[in-house]
UniProtKB/TrEMBL annotation:
InterPro entries: 6-blade_b-propeller_TolB-like, SGL, SMP-30
Active site per database record: 203 (proton donor/acceptor)
Pfam families per the UniProt record, alphabetical: SGL (PF08450)
Family statement drawn from the similarity comment of this UniProt entry: Belongs to the SMP-30/CGR1 family.
Residues where a divalent metal cation binds: 22, 155, 203
Species of provenance: Microbacterium saperdae
Keyword annotations of the record: Metal-binding, Zinc
Co-factor note (free text): Binds 1 divalent metal cation per subunit.
Name of the protein this chain belongs to: Sugar lactone lactonase YvrE
Top-rank taxon, per record: Bacteria
Amino acid sequence: MSRSSLSRTVEILSDARYVQAESPRWDGRDGTLAWIDMATGAFHRGRFADGRVVPEAAVVVGAQIGAPVPLVAEGAGWAVAVDQGLVHVSDAGTVSPLATDVARTGDYMNDGGADPFGRFWVGSQAMPRDPHCSLWSFDSRGVPTERLSGVTVSNGLSFDRSGSTLYYIDTLPHRSIEAFDVAPDGRLSNRRTVCRVDGGNPDGMTIDQEGLLWVAVWDAGEVRRYSPDGALVETIALPATRPTAVALVDRLLVVTTASVGLAHPAEADGALLGVEVEVGGSPALPWAGTPPTTDTAHSAAAGEVAR
């Protein structure tokens, strides 16, 4: 049964406003939050204090930044999708290449996340929009394997607890949540539509501890919760027009938003938002790779995309 009429209090968590904040990630190693600003190419980290997100670090990693994922060990930094590949960002802000020239020239990496087996999955997009992009998984050495082709705008991506089901959003042209069966080696099969998302563009997505999906709906000013069979369970109206992505920090639903393209942004446009929900989530799954040395960075960058 839909709970779209349930009253929720949406709070502004950030003092700063971002042009296009995206990809919030709860870091289970130290309890902090990471996110990006696509418009500036910056990777941000902050801590929670007194109901707010207090920025602690920001580093520009490239012209077109995509999703970040933590490494396993505390202090080991992050893998971040950027431009046509991946980089490592250390806690001190040092940026080192992990994989280069994976996406085709003119395309760039967008959303993604890790699976329970330590692979980093990330997809690309292009401007102008055209269905020639891809979804890859990167192993612990940073070597990519193309898992899906014919993608237009790779966005939300979440795995169930077992890692045997992938929920995925290629925003255009169908504006739908899809699901795939995932083999132990990462091969995808049994592609099916979970549901169509009407009234806006489905963007970032996360999964909660009950296996339900929270989706940010760009231009609808909403976050929606769907069951794995596509039933709309709840809709949360936001004070921002362009929510971009979501993360569950325990029972705090964190929503990144954008002000890009809005002629008259409202107070919350571009802010980090938060709303308490009943069912929590888990920290971002980590990538199983290690911080690069000069040799391993060179080796990973030379990896070929499997076809």
